[in-house]
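ok so i was messing around last nite and threw this chain in just to see what happens. nothing serious, just curious
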Amino acid sequence: MPVGRPDNQRIVITGIGLTSPNGNNLAEYRAALLAGRSGVTRYEIRYIGQTLAGVCRFDEARYQSKKDRRRGTRAGSVGIYCTNEAVVDAGLDWKNIDKSRVGVYLGITEHGNVETENEVYELSQFQYDVKFWSHHHNPRTVANNPAGEVTINMGITGPHYTIGAACAAGNAGLIQGAQMLRLGEVDVALCGGVSESTHTFGIFASFKSQGALAEHDDPTKASRPFDKARNGIVVAEGGCVYVLERYDEAKRRGAKIYGELVGYAMNSDAGDFVMPSAERQAECIAKAVRSADLTPEQIDVVSTHATGTAGGDVQEAAALRSVFRDNPRTKFNNTQSFIGHAMGAAGALELAGNLPSFTDRCCHATLNLDDVDPECALSGIVRNQPQEGVQINVILNNSFGMLGINSAVIVQRI
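result:
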């Protein structure tokens, strides 16, 4: 814990709700990670045809009516499902909570592409006569939509917004929630990230034109970060929302605590649109470690963000080597190898996959890491099989995105 921080400035995680390609709650998701079960499957999308993707199959009707689902968006449904699940998991007395003191902060990579693509396609069936354009278009495509849909669904009257932070968005949502709690603006922060990326052909087409869309005869082996045979990203959808509270309040109500958010950092490469900077990533990681009043030697697990691209994985590995060197204590793993790249939800899901290690003493593996690329070598990387019986007290979660946005979040066991 950072020295001298009072209990009303300590931020803890008391609830987690998620949907991922290999699980629709934390228990299912964690079991799949430990069992080496991939969520990547064959997938077909307009104009692209057959491809591979990480697709979620959660119960949209659990918290939404058919009418609400028809009016809203896929990202909104993901957010509503995850947020309701997180509130239940946290054991909050939701009926009696002051909803004006609840904030919703959801990270996104992009929003509105799915709805716009679908509506343009539908319009093409009517010779582009705009009278057939949906009157729901504007509320569906505004950037705050996913968080806004959550507030309408749950009756939340406190602040809400989405945080456009590319693939660092899941971490950015957590950081925003923690900051608002410390400022006293809210008493409960519902934060994390959501993604509907598998429903927009544009993302697949763009990665394909870059030569960065993964291909493999076996879908479960397509996502292979750090491996010599990696050939690109597997696009995935998903969501993960956390309940954050101040430690004094969580302790007062006897809440279960997954961990304490003790450090974080964000910075920018100020370089290329796509290619990351190992130097700037290393600076971000080191800054997060310092903010937690820790040293690199005290980090037990680093949840890497590596997506399976040729250049990106090399840059992250170089950044990690520069910070952690050959520290024998630190282990490195990767969640995208199981589910693909869930874009705005990636960072939040990656962290969630590791949090149970505080209690089950297992570090989940990096899947499909059969032949490590020498340029991606990390001395403590966990390959293909989980490591069991290890003491894990501190987790660092990396999340990086296009246009050079970098983030790192550190959670400590209480």
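not much to say yet. The radius of gyration is 20 Å.
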